[in-house]
Amino acid sequence: MKRNLTRVRLALVFLLLLAVGSGSVSAQNALTITDGSAEGLSSSALSVLMDADAPVEGYVLAITFDTGLLSVSDVEIGSATSSAGAELIAPEILAGGFTLGVVLDFEDPFGGQTIPAGTGLEIASFSITPLTIVSAPTDTPIEFIDGVLNDPVLDNIIVQGGLTIGVNEGLGLNNGTMTLLPPPPDGLAIEGVIFPSDASGEARILMSNSSGPVQGFVLAIAHDTDQVTLTQISIAGTVTSDVGAELVVPQVYATGGTLGVVLDFGVPFDGQSIAIGIDQHIASFVYSSNEEIIIPAPDETSTVSFADGQLGGPLLDNVLVVAGLSISPGLENGTLTRLAVDPPPVHDTAFYIGQIDFPDTGTQGGQGFPGMAIEFCFFYTDPTDNIQGVQIAVCYDDLEFLDGTFTIEGSIADELGAEFVNYQIDNDETDGDGREFLLGILMDALPPFENQQLPPTSEPLLIGCVQAEVLGGAVCGDTFSVDFCDGINGNGMVLINNLVVIDYQSIENFERFGATYEIIPVPSFRRGDCNTDERVDLADAATVIASQFQGFPVECDDACDSNDDGTINLADSVYLLNFLFQFGDLPPDPGPYSTGPDPTLDDLDCALPAACN
Length: 613
Hints:
Layout: H1 2-19, E1 30-33, E2 36-39, E3 44-52, E4 58-65, E5 70-77, H2 79-84, E6 88-94, E7 97-103, E8 118-130, E9 138-144, E10 157-160, E11 163-165, E12 172-174, E13 176-181, E14 187-190, E15 193-196, E16 200-209, E17 214-222, E18 228-234, H3 239-242, E19 247-252, E20 256-262, E21 277-289, E22 300-306, E23 319-322, E24 325-327, E25 330-332, E26 334-339, E27 350-354, H4 358-361, E28 366-368, E29 373-382, E30 389-396, E31 399-401, H5 412-415, E32 420-426, E33 435-442, E34 457-470, E35 479-484, E36 499-502, E37 505-507, E38 511-513, E39 515-519, H6 538-549, H7 557-560, H8 570-581
Parallel strand pairs: 1-12, 2-13, 14-25, 15-26, 27-38, 28-39
Antiparallel strand pairs: 1-3, 3-8, 4-7, 4-9, 4-10, 5-8, 6-7, 9-13, 10-11, 14-16, 16-21, 17-20, 17-22, 17-23, 18-21, 19-20, 22-26, 23-24, 27-29, 29-34, 30-33, 30-35, 30-36, 31-34, 32-33, 35-39, 36-37
Helix pairs in contact: 6-8
């Protein structure tokens, strides 16, 4: 019904245009079909251009082509017609071509729309798609044709001043050419994958298809059975899944795997396909290592390859299906690299880096700002063994460990009387091995040799602490870490590893947990603004008293320290009252009238900013 209605409308246009009569010859009116080209089965957009020596009130196009080689779609008006506000548009795609009838002013209030005179005016566009793949460039004409298409048959005309201008009245018709080009070679590639030998690796299968949309494909891929095992074939997260593949048949074999896919397999047959594209992820083959490779053994690499005629029953080849044809694509094999992994822990000792409250909070990292003082403490756990000594080797960046600040005071090592304690701090990051901290503790090193040992513990016990400062050049938003590092030499030549001494044996194979910090802006505050309302007045003196005697919480200790003596007490309230009402001294920097960082190193801090500006 819709097709018949379109034909009726087109006939009405034709009759309307013919009813006004014919015009005189004019050499300046012409219609031109642009040339185009397409690789494989990809589409190409062509236009019909008009040269007109006077305004145009309507037109009819009738265009034919080799329907054995080409198909047409998306017949639409062009930019010049659209801009003029055409009111009747009647396209019709027919067995031998297509027609398009247009009347610019067809409806009330009949405003007299026209396409202005001009050259190269785009009045129509259409999409041409090849129906076959050529092996060499092939030209085929796109032609105007009079008296053949539609019912009643139509001629190519334009209407000017109520007069019909066709070929007999001097309308030039310039045909176009469509050039069919061989497509670039289609291809399948196995993307190389690197994965730890104690985990799995997903090898993605990539498809580059230039011939045309892919309606289905077959994969047949083999692997080295001595090194890896194929555990799964999947289309999850692929373009194959995205377009709604309806038949997916994976098959895993001892030596490889196959996958057959038909995109549109069941009713209502909507024509699903994978569009033309490069390196499109169509499937994943997942492999596991047959054995763990343990450091210091080297990583191992094996080939995973397309295997025509080797897998399946019947034996399968790797193919793509385009326009109902099986295409043998180019095949690019890949590699599976299995990484050597750390030996599994054979001992239940563990080292930790954290702040002094780490056993209670379990928090090892945090935030720091340039110039901030941070205390790093070292802890151990070992639920089963006594430890005769510990050796700690630590690397760090964006920090300066402070000489003379390491102490075992308050630690289990101090409590049990450690007799040898020695450490090194190397803050020279230009010496080729970065910044380093080394520590050695031997519990029983002096007569009368009473065999002191660190006790078994399931809860982290403190070994010692060292003071550090975040470097002034630290970049806000970056992170810095303090990690256990084996094979460092500090200020000397001897390479030191992390270890514990148990039963007079060096035990190195255990877990270590470092700390990571985010660099944030230097906290700023207003001296005396204890209630943080951005002004200094009597309420701040009251807040100091409330915080000391009533447990009132404050957000910025530094701001409450009005006299900057590093302690918050009643003196800070008195200092503020003297400043406000007794002509007393101005609170120290950054003062009560501006914000800034604390110039004094003390134990007080503001609540830290959440992120960099």
